[in-house]
Amino acid sequence: MKKILSLFLLVWLIAFSLLYVTKTIESSKGYGGANTLTIYNWGDYIDPALIKKFEKETGFKVIYQTFDSNEAMMTKIAQGGTTFDVAVPSEYAISKMKEEGLLLPIDHSKIPNLRYIDKRFLDLSFDPGNEYSIPYFWGTVGIVYNRALLGGKEITSWNDLWDPSFKNQILLVDGAREIMGMALNSLHYSLNDTNKTHLQQAKQKLDALTPNVKAIVGDEIKMLLANEEAAIGIVWSGDAAEMMWENERLDYVIPKEGTNLWFDNMVIPKTAKNIEGAHQFINFMLDPKNAAQNAEYVGYSTPNKKALEYLPKEMVEDERFYPSEQLASKLEVYENLGKNMLAYYNELFLQFKMHRK
Amino acid sequence: MRRYAYAIPYWLWIGLFVVAPIILIIYYSFFDIEGHFSLVNYQTFFTPVYLRMTVNSFWYAFLITACSLLIAYPTAYLLTKTKHKQLWLLLIILPTWVNLLLKAYAFLGLFGTYGAVNALFETIGIGTKQLLFTDFSFVFVSVYIFIPFMILPIFNALEKLNPSLIDASRDLGASEWTTFRRVIFPLTLDGVKAGCQAVFIPSLSLFMLTRLIAGNRVITLGTAVEQHFLVTQNWGMGATIAVFLMIAMAGIMALTGNRKWGVRQ
Amino acid sequence: MKVSRLYLAFVFFVLYMPIFYLIYYSFNSGGTMHHFESFTLDWYKDVFADTRLLIIVLHTMIIALLSSSLATIIGVLGAIAIYYAKHRWKQTLLTLNNVLIVSPDVMIGASFLILFTIAGIRLGFTSVLLSHIAFSIPIVVLMILPKLQEMSPTLIDAARDLGANEWNVLTKVILPYITPGIFAGFFMALTYSLDDFAVTFFVTGNGFSTLSVEIYSRARQGISLSVNALSTLLFLFTLVLVVVYYVITQRASVKGGQE
């Protein structure tokens, strides 16, 4: 009995002194006050130096929280119970959140820097007039491959991946829309196709790819490809840029059949408490110099036209990451296909995952 | 009734965190993706895709449990023979306090084509093998994660064992093997059962490792639940799978259950 | 005996292999867990410069200590209640007890999230603490029950016959007997709490975070070696703690034996 009591007393003593220490540190750093701004973003999707700069300029304290999928983020916001002042969902999630009334309209008069954004990225179908969202980054889905490991073979199209000599060489990202989209594109269908025969065809085409697929993975794909664990990967453009910094033998290609063009935009969720701060933050991120700094850190393409002037020339002129308008016209944006269709895509993708070599 | 009053916090816990979520999950399992009441999720569960997934999950859970037991039993037995056995036992548990994701990343490095294990294989002369994204690495890492939960109950059961029983068996001329088979193992069966439950049941619903270590070449029911809750947002289907997981758990508990209870009371 | 030593050594080697791997690369100036370039302590400096990370570590420890101790108390009461329960209720109670162990974490997280929303509890410290207590209770019960079963019922009857009231029976007979189980339960609860990612991920909010959630969100960029450095420090800290704890209890029991 004495033993148990002393254990608990010790545990509580430690716990409460730790609690005290935490509170002291937090209050000395100014967290927890009304002056905070909570940002809900993808992991490592902003240059931390910019957050510090923003705090210094405006006096707000920024809490940076992260999510790993649009769906997890939407669940959190829909359930309430927590404050997020700014979030950064992808385009199809924005249209869904709009439908469900999870977003607050953005006051454009408070975002003068909006004029720097390239017109191409404004007024898109998922948010006409940018009533609820402001562009943050954009990019494509494409193929990363290791020239040296493939003995100098070139890859230019999705269909090249079915080459039998690539046995056990391909890593795929774990995303139903991305992989089904790839198969649909390789069959010259739209990646928003809802025709079930087409989708079945795409699934069968994927099954034929199984011998070449080594694994279907998440964010580890960057590390695995940079370490030459496999020669080919289906990835998002920004991840490709990162890998290529690490391993010079890698190259990125936008497949000639066309692929997905995606956008991540900043929004103000309905749970926001600091709406004024949220507008200031969005405006701050659109400042050309800040946008350029962020793009250099994150590696994705910035929609900020003026920011391009502050970026290294070889980066901006790289057609792989800043495709020309002509090339971009071949790319498609994901549409919100509705719950049922999305479930069907996921079901087929699940069946593909279960398909054994 | 007064005798049960002291356990009010526990009853509250059962009510709020066990019964309420179960009701919630059963309730959700009757709604399709559009939010209409239907039995479609149960129909879907009995399609070949999900049945195969169920068989897969059970098969891998069985493999993981069997391997854990095979390695854990001798380990627990040898631990009871060491001098500072409590310390060694604590040291078995200690690695579980290091973040799972970090350990998984370490295994990615160790098992990689250019990793430490393959370098070792190369020097021994076996040559480089693909270890990552295979059944082997998946079972290995899962066993690695779960083995402390198998060792602990077996260790405790062995500790309880009355040494005079073993001496008696030896005195009666039984060989080491016979003593083990006829005396030690049967008497530690409760610990083995507890360990098997502690490993088998969570193995059924493993998820993160199926992607990190098995590269989605292994799909378990847990993976599917995660998908339905987080990606498809088909909570109804996720809940339906969860209902079957709960039924499976109750079944396993009943099978390996403590039949002695009745005798004791 | 030689073979058995070798076997144990091998088991320990495998158990600690990934941890030593993490520790080794925490000194790598190269920045990744591949290709060791040269020795550096920069990652350790990073850890101490990163206040947010330190706060998260403190949060993690506070949650682990509070949740596991509270879960242990509730678990002890629960185990005793199950022990006393009538036979036909026992299996039902046990099954209910184990539901949270078998349920996939994601589902527990999602259902707790809905629960907290209904109850109007703000996501953050309280919701995370409550969830951790909730999923730790069953394992505590499972650790204590075998000890109770082992205890002969005549012990309690004897105590009652000698005029002990319920409270005395509990503190003088039952608790001392199941102390090892209580300790084991506490350590298991601690383990579960430190390890949990999925449930916390769902029920956290308003700037509150635990280490595993933070590591998961940092993993997108390929885990920074400062996380390795932090884990090394925590690992060494717990290692020292375990050894010190062992030496103290060892001394205490030696003394106890002499008296």
Question: Descriptors for this entry?
Answer:
heterotrimer, A: 357 residues, D-Maltodextrin-Binding Protein, domain 2, 3 domains, B: 265 residues, MetI-like fold, 0% strand, disordered C terminus, transport (chain A), Spermidine/putrescine transport system substrate-binding protein (chain A)
If you compute it from the alpha carbons, what radius of gyration of chain A comes out, rounded to the nearest whole angstrom?
23 Å
How many E strands of chain B? Answer: 0
The proportion of residues in beta strands of chain A is 15-25%
Distance between the first and last residues' Cα of chain B: 19 Å
Q: Could you name the CATH homologous superfamily of chain B?
A: MetI-like
Poorly predicted runs of chain B: 259-265
Low-confidence stretches of chain A: none
Structure description:
The complex is a heterotrimer of chains A (357), B (265) and C (259). Chain A has 357 residues and is α/β, with parallel strands linked by helices. Chain A folds into 3 domains: 1-28; 29-137 and 264-322, Periplasmic binding protein-like II (D-Maltodextrin-Binding Protein, domain 2, 3-Layer(aba) Sandwich), CATH 3.40.190.10; 139-261 and 331-354, D-Maltodextrin-Binding Protein, domain 2 (3-Layer(aba) Sandwich), CATH 3.40.190. Chain A has 13 helices and 10 strands. The mean pLDDT of chain A is 90. In chain B, helix 4 (48-81) packs antiparallel against helix 11, helix 8 (135-160) packs antiparallel against helix 11 (189-204) and helix 9 (163-171) packs antiparallel against helix 10 (176-187). Chain B contains 15 helices and no strands. Chain C has 2 domains: 1-40 and 227-259, no CATH class; 51-223, MetI-like fold. Chain C contains 11 helices and no strands. Chain C has helices at 2-25, 42-49, 51-84, 87-102, 105-119, 125-150, 153-161, 166-195, 198-203, 211-218, 225-258. In chain C, helix 4 crosses helix 6. The longest helix of chain C has 34 residues, at 51-84. The radius of gyration of chain C is 22 Å and the shape is globular. In chain C, 48% of the residues are buried. The mean pLDDT of chain C is 86. At the B-C interface, helix 2, helix 4, helix 5, helix 6 and helix 8 of B face helix 1, helix 3, helix 4, helix 5 and helix 6 of C. Chain B: This is Spermidine/putrescine transport system permease protein. Chain B: It comes from Anoxybacillus tengchongensis. Chain B: Residues 54-256 form the ABC transmembrane type-1 domain. Chain B: Its main location: membrane.
